[in-house]
Design goal:
Elements: H1 2-17, E1 31-38, E2 55-69, H2 74-91, E3 96-109, E4 114-127, E5 150-157
Antiparallel strand pairs: 1-3, 2-4, 2-5, 3-4
Length: 158
Amino acid sequence: MVQVCNRAFNNFCHNHLGIQIHPVHKSHALETERIESSSGPARTHACLADLKPTLVGPRVEHKDEFTCKGGVDAGRLVNLARKGLYSTAKEMGGNVLLEEKLAWLASLYQRRDQFKVTIHYSATVARSYKPDAQKPVEIEAAKGIKGLMTVIDRHPEF
């Protein structure tokens, strides 16, 4: 039954949307290598270290899952995850992130030169007269995988 549904969906996509869907076999998705990195304990940017915020909100978390091909530019992906977290903070009335912490995991899959990258970013939302640093804390610690990165898919979770 599942095969019939898959075939019908593939035919619909091909005939009506002009998209060809190729099935991924389990043998193609074998994890061969993992790279993990983190910023360590929660930190606040130096430019905000002496800050006395006018309002401190809750701690928020953001998780992003990327599928990349060719390489992993960890700094760029971490920056995208932070921007997602910052937009959540702005919706909550904050304008700075304090006590930032990040962790990321990249998994290389055999064949296809694809990587699954999961980034967990958390911070405390606050309101201040000083502007936000607009860059991830300890970005230098994020190690990448050499190559020209192409982001194939992104799944943000708040």
